[in-house]
Every structure is written in structure tokens, then in C-alpha cells.
Task: structure prediction
Amino acid sequence: MVTSPAPRWLGILVLVATLTLIPRCGVAQFLDPDNKILCWHCNSHNAHFIGGATADAALHFMPFVKQSWETPARRVATVAIAGVGLELADYVQCRQAHSCGRPDKGFGVIDLGYDLAGAAVTELLIAGLKRVPGLKRLL
Result:
């Protein structure tokens, strides 16, 4: 099985960014204090779910990534890497504004979970739709 070097380089880029941006402060200032796991509208959980689902659906139709991300696991992993990047950007933004440690500010682990849940639901939905006669060639 020949794989593209793109996933490896993307993973290395995220690793370097993570090591560069690792906080030199306490974990409480780095992590988002969000603990409302089942609250759909709290701290933009619904937006993270929709963002993960949209990113995963977009990966299905992008011709230039078809070779690299043609399996559901790779697409969900790509959404995870993108989600980590966005959460790191959120942390950098809150650190510049000195607003870390407040709700929906900092690296949101629960937000990342909602990103992955959106991607997983999209994969399950598309897998189910492929079983419908006549729709398989559209997907």
C-alpha cells in the first residue's frame, strides 16, 4: 500500500506547532475549563460538531486529497489534526488577549471531541446512504 507523504508531514507540522506553543504556565491556563459535556449549545459545542461534520464531508469531494484520505479513519484523523490546530490557535488568541482560563477560551478538549463526533456521524451517514440503491454512484 503506497501512501502519500502528506499525512506524515501534516502530523509532523502539528507536532512542531504543539511543541512550539506548549504553554509555560499551568494547565489551568492552557485548557478550556469547559466541563459541560452533554450541553449542546454551551461553549459552541454545536458549532464544533457541525464544523467536524462539514470538514469530513468536504474531504469526500476534494479530488486532490482522494489518494491520501480515501478511508474513513484517515478522514476522521484529518479532522482531528485540523481540530487540534484550531484549538491551538484559540489558545494563542486567548493568551494574547490574557483571557485564558475562562469558558470557551484555551485548548478545548471537549470541543475537539465534538469535532470528532461530527466527523464520525458524517462517515456513518455516508456509509448508510451508500447502501441505498441509486445513491451509491452519487456518493
Observations:
- DSSP finds five helices and no strands in the chain.
- The CA atoms of residues 93 and 106 lie 8 Å apart.
- Helices lie at 6-21, 27-30, 45-61, 72-97, 109-129.
